[in-house]
Amino acid sequence: MGGQISWHVELSVKSGQLGNFQTLTAEMVDATRRERGVLSYQRFVSDDGMKIHIYERYADSAAAVAHLAAFTERFADRFGAMVERKAFTVFGDPSAELRAALARFNAIYFKPFGDFDYWA
CA-to-CA distance for 39 and 33, rounded, in angstroms? Predict the structure, then answer.
């Protein structure tokens, strides 16, 4: 995996917040587009609009830490008012600094399986 980090987050949309969350997501996508080391930044919504799945991938732990710092500063309060995190799953081998930054999300970690030459 070459140090890449990715995560999958499951969210539940709070009542009446889907439109607000879509507006916030547009702001977040625009801001994240300018960050270094972001390889993938995607959102998916259920047919009923009640669940959101997030998939993000970063070049390395440092890029993920930088993203979390920017998220916390600019978006965390509004984000938390609109959705509830149900699960936060991290893939890769995160640095101690990234694990510390993710501690508040009760993340579950999965390391690469075996010493295979995986591809993206």
Answer: 10
